[in-house]
Amino acid sequence: MDLTSTYIRAVKSFEQIDITVLVNNIILDAVHQKASDIHIEAWESTLPIRLRISGILRELTHLPHEFLDRIAGRLKVMADLVTYETELPQEGRAPASPEYGNVELRVSIFPTVRGEKIVVRLFDPQNRSFDLETLGFESDTIQSFKKLIRRPSGLILLNGPTGSGKTTAIYSALCHLVDAHGPTISISTVEDPVEFNLPMISQSQISNSRGFTYPMALRSLMRQDPEAIMIGEIRDPETATIAVQAGLTGHMVISTIHSDSTAGVYARLINMDIEPFLLASSITGVLGLRLLRTICPRCKTEDRPNPEHLSLLPEGFVEETAFYTGAGCDACSQTGYHGRVAVTELLNSSELVREGVIQKLRTSKLHDIAIEEGMITLWQNAMAKVQRGITSLQEVIRVITVNQL
Ligand SMILES: [Zn+2]
Q1: Cβ–Cβ < 8 Å for 392, 341
Q2: Which tens digits make up the pLDDT trace of 207-264?
């Protein structure tokens, strides 16, 4: 039984609920269940508290609507927000406290017609180690990725939807550089937000409201004599221009960018008015990333996937493969999954890829060239994990869209 439900049952009436205890219990439940976010929003007849665990939202409990304002008020106090403001969005941070499991909170409040919608993101600032070897990358990918990171210059881009493990992969890459070079390398980051504090790396938090934007931070940072620069995200032409220039002028630059596919990163940057020949000469590689839930070892069982899913696979594959899934047990809260593993697609900027970029070839054509040049696709890497019984076929289909086959 979770702490929140236990507490609600223990008090005789809703009036007796201490809001501080209730909110702390919700956060503690989220920490215990390894949730990344807490969602609190009013539905028509109830106020569900939901946790995002391994990428999926699950209900923790339901409360009466009357609690929304009190919970919002408590979280606003914790995150130093304006308590009487209910009509405008607000964002703030609450520092880690032992009262709620030593996690740092990022509180986002958004007005809706049924009251404020609250999302709390949890960050565990302690006891995190970042190691490229433990992310689940295939060993060839780790080797190629390390080569890219250790080049003295060039731009490396990571691509994937929110919650696909980009930050963890980038932090692991930076920690690899620290391990390789020790105190002889200068590494700086600009991030929004800084999610974990890394040893031996200067991390800066962007603040748009104070005018400390990505372009402003990066222009100053270039005068700080860095060798490696991490940019949280490239989302505007100015940041893209500086990132490309930095990569061309003797810096190892690593960043993330949104696009619907790995090869699509080039088109995205061309749409930001970056000259294709600059992209061809600065980008050394693009790493596509997704996270797959791994089958719970306690309830793992052999499975025959449905014919529609099997029809997506090559014939030989189906005969050779024993498919597994999780039946659901108490250890995995009946989900059948426990933990997650990364799958990747590393597009190396080979000569043919660079020529294709300069000729502004379509994304699908660039993708084909990359495969001819040896790129193992997301789908292929995910299928290798299905064959090893690490994840299920339905999980791969949930995460990787069919046009990425
Ligand atoms: Zn299980």
Answers
A1: no
A2: 888 899 999 999 999 999 999 999 999 999 999 999 999 999 999 999 999 999 999 9
Q: Detail the DSSP E strand segments found in 44-173.
A: 47-53, 56-63, 90-94, 104-112, 115-123, 154-159
Rounded to the nearest angstrom, the distance between the alpha carbon of 257 and the centre of ligand 1 is 35
Pairing of strands 300-302, 324-326: antiparallel
How far apart are alpha carbons 400 and 405 in whole angstroms?
8
Q: Give me the residue spans of the domains in the chain.
A: 3-123, 132-404
Q: Is 93 exposed, middle or buried (0-12, 13-18, 19+ CB in 10 A)?
A: middle
Distance of alpha carbon 168 from alpha carbon 131, whole angstroms: 9
Please check whether the two domains, 3-123 and 132-404, share a CATH topology: no
132-404 maps to CATH 3.40.50.300: yes
A 10 A CB-CB count for 157 gives 28
Query: Ligand 1 mean position to 332 CA, how many Å?
Result: 4
Separation of first and last alpha carbons in the chain:
41
**Which parts of the chain register pLDDT below 70?**
125-127, 402-405
Q: How far, in Å, is the centroid of ligand 1 from the Cα of 239?
A: 45
Which amino acid, residue 74?
A: R
DSSP element (H, E) containing 264: helix 264-271
In contact, 254 and 173? CB cutoff 8 Å? yes
Measure 325 CA to ligand 1 centroid, in angstroms: 10
Q: 295 CA to middle of ligand 1, Å?
A: 8
Overall CATH class of domain 3-123 = alpha beta
Q: What is the pLDDT of residue 29?
A: 96
